[in-house]
C-alpha cells in the first residue's frame, strides 16, 4: 500500500511517526480484473492480514463503487496523517512483496493520490465515519482558480448539514483537484440532501469537470476502522 522508507529511525521514533496525526490522506483506486473479483478480494484480505501481523498502526478503509462510471472498482484510503507518518511505513519492502504476490495479479492500479484535509471548508474531522454509504464528489478546476473556489466554499461552510469533508489533491494527479466525502448510513439520507448539498453557484464557472459517485463500505476489506453502518 505504501512505499515510503523507514530509514534508520529506532522503534520508538518509528512508532511515534507512524501514529502522528495530521491533515494528509491517501486515496487510491483499484480495478479488479474481469472475472477475478473473488480472487482479488481474497488476495486483498491476505494483504490486510500481512499489515496486521506486521504491527500496522494506520486504519485502512475499503469501499466498492456502487453508482458511477467506475462501478465495481475498489477504493482504499487512510486518513489523518502527518507528513512524518507518511515516511514511516511498516517494512515497505515486505509490504510491496506481499502486495505483488496477493493483490497485483488480480487487478489494475488506476490511480493513487495524496490529499490534504481542508477544515475551513468542512464539517467534521479529516477522518470520515465508516457508514454504509459514502458520496464521493471529484471536482477539477480551471487553472489558477483554487483560492477563489476555496473562499466560496468557506463562505457556505456554516450551512453544511451532516458530515461533509473536503480535501485538496497535493500529489498524484491533475491539479487543481478537490474531493468531497459525505458519509451517510442510507441512500435515502444521501438522496434526501441533494438539494442542500450542491456546490455554490459562485463556483460554477471555475469548474472544468465534476463527477459524483456513491461508494459502499466493505468492513471485511478494511483494517482498524470502527464501523458505523446500517442495513444495506
Concise description?
With 232 residues, the chain is an alpha+beta fold. The protein has six helices and eight strands, in the order αβαββααββαββαβ.
Task: Provide structural commentary.
With 232 residues, the chain is of the alpha+beta class. It folds into two domains: 11-115, 2-Layer Sandwich (Alpha-Beta Plaits); 116-216, Alpha-Beta Plaits (2-Layer Sandwich), CATH 3.30.70. Helix content is 25%, strand content 31%. It has helices at 11-18, 37-53, 83-86, 92-102, 146-156, 187-192; strands at residues 21-32, 61-67, 74-81, 107-117, 133-141, 165-171, 177-184, 207-217. Strands 1-3-2-8-5-7-6-4 form an eight-stranded antiparallel β-barrel. Strand 6 (165-171) and strand 7 form a beta hairpin. The longest helix has 17 residues, at 37-53. It is globular.
What fold name stands as the CATH topology of the largest domain? Alpha-Beta Plaits
Total DSSP E strands:
8
Helix count equals 6
Overall mean confidence score, pLDDT: 90
Q: What ranges have pLDDT less than 50 throughout 5 or more consecutive residues?
A: 2-18
Gyration radius, rounded = 18 Å
The CATH C-level name of the largest domain is Alpha Beta
Work out the helicity level. Answer: 10-25%
Major sheet details: 8 strands, antiparallel, barrel
By helix and strand content, what is the structural category?
Answer: alpha+beta
Amino acid at each position: 500500500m505504501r512505499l515510503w522508507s523507514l530509514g534508520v529511525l529506532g522503534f520508538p521514533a518509528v512508532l511515534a511517526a507512524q501514529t502522528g496525526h495530521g491533515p494528509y490522506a491517501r486515496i487510491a483506486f483499484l480495478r479488479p480484473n474481469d472475472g477475478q473479483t473473488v480472487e482479488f478480494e481474497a488476495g486483498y484480505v491476505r494483504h490486510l492480514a500481512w499489515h496486521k501481523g506486521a504491527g500496522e498502526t494506520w486504519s485502512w478503509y475499503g469501499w466498492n463503487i456502487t453508482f458511477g462510471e467506475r462501478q465495481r472498482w475498489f477504493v482504499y484510503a487512510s486518513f489523518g496523517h502527518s507528513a512524518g507518518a507518511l515516511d514511516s511505513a511498516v517494512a515497505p519492502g515486505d509490504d510491496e512483496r506481499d502486495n505483488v504476490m496477493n493483490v497485483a495479479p488480480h487487478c489494475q492500479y488506476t490511480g493513487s493520490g495524496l490529499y490534504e484535509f481542508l477544515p475551513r471548508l468542512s464539517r467534521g474531522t479529516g477522518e470520515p465515519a465508516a457508514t454504509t454509504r459514502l458520496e464521493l464528489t471529484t471536482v477539477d478546476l480551471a487553472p489558477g482558480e483554487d483560492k477563489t473556489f476555496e473562499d466560496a466554499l468557506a463562505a457556505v461552510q456554516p450551512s453544511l448539514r451532516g458530515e461533509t469533508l473536503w480535501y485538496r489533491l497535493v500529489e498524484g494527479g491533475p491539479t487543481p483537484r478537490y474531493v468531497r466525502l459525505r458519509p451517510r448510513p442510507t441512500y435515502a439520507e444521501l438522496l434526501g440532501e441533494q438539494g442542500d448539498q450542491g456546490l455554490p453557484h459562485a463556483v460554477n464557472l471555475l469548474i472544468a469537470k465534476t463527477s459524483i459517485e456513491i461508494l459502499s463500505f466493505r468492513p471485511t476489506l478494511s483494517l482498524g476502522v470502527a464501523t458505523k453502518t446500517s442495513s444495506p
